[in-house]
Structures are given as structure tokens and as C-alpha cells.
Amino acid sequence: MENAVLFETDDQTAIITLNRPERRNAMNQALLTQLYDAVDRFSADDSLHAAIITGNGKAFCSGIDLSCLGKDNLFDPRGDGSDMVSVFSACKKPIIGAVNGHTITGGFELALNCDFLIASEHASFADTHAKVGIHPGWGMTQLLQQAVGQRMAKQMSLSCQFINAEKALEIGLVNEVVPEDLLMERALAVARHICEVNYPMMMTVKSLIEHRNSATLIDALAEEARGFETFAKAFR
User: What's the total number of domains in the chain?
Assistant: First the structure.
């Protein structure tokens, strides 16, 4: 099997690199299998507290490799019933997307499954599901509107037009835009800051933030208050 995904570590940070630069890191069964394995490996390793996902070459990920449609099992690449959303949801640790170029359709969905994004000034984003006639399946219709609001998500997904890094920053899709040659340096710096804090409490805070995805504001506030009550009682 090709080395479609590379896995490295930098102290307590995992670096997961999509490695099909000759195909602009397009997704085939091998890449998806190795990507899911890499996320699971990061999740299971107690010595790793943050991860970065990026692409080798000039693209982050150009989406599904169309030459593989009808040949590769893209829905369940490992044969275990896991898809992209379930694999990323099962990983409770923070994953940073370091977006270094074109991020298109399925590749865009991959980026949206990360906790937040740092983009190169040369990054660009497009949801072209409606243009190429491919049904979204890795979270596009829900995660994009969560990131940028429903009206902007409709404009992007229905028009299938590219937006550049500056526009992505303006609408809240990415957190930062940096020069291309500083992208990994900045992503690693943010990851190191995450790794330097109190790990159990960082994970608690992350969980509380995400609790709002499936709860009302009142319920989410109550969940936080319950946790604080338990925390405070420990000091009595």
C-alpha cells in the first residue's frame, strides 16, 4: 500500500501529512484508510496532546480522486463501519488543520472536521459537490454552516465558487492567515501552547465547548456549572 499519509511527532504533537502530491492529495481508499488510522493512533497515544493535519505539496486536499469512484470503497474504507465524521468525533484531543493550498469538496470536509484552521496566504476553499454531482457525506452540509453561518454556507455550497484565504478569515472559516513559509511553524507554535497547559482541564474545557453542539445554551451552562461545583467541592 502506498504511503498516502505520513505520521510524525514533534514532542507532544502529532503531524499527519496527506502524501499524494502528484494527485493534489486527492482521496482514494488508501489515503482514507491511513488517515483514519493516523487519527486513531494519535487519539490512543497518551504522550500526544495535539495534532496537525496538512498536505504535502501545493494542495491541502483536492477531494475525492474521481478515478477511484466505483472502484474504491470510500464510504467504509477500512471495512469497520467508520467514516470521517465518526473517526474525528471519536478523537477527543484537539486537531489543527494547517491548510496550505486548494481545499476542495471532500478535502474541504476534512478541514471542517478539524477543531480549527490556520491557513497559508495561498489557501483557497470550495464546495463543489453540486457542480460535480457528488453527494456530500463527511459533514459539509452541517459543519460549514456551523463555521460560517447558514446564509454564507448556502452561497458557498450552491454557487460552488472558490474563496481565498483572506475571505475565509473574514467569514470566520479560518482562525489565522500566515505566509506560506510560516504555516507549519505557526501551527506547531499553537500546538505547543496547547501542550503546555493543564492537559486534563484543557480536555474538559474542549468537551464543554463542544457540548453546546447538542444542547441548548441553558443546558450547556448548567453542564459547566455542575462541573465547577464538583471541582470546588474537592477543595473543601
Answer: 2
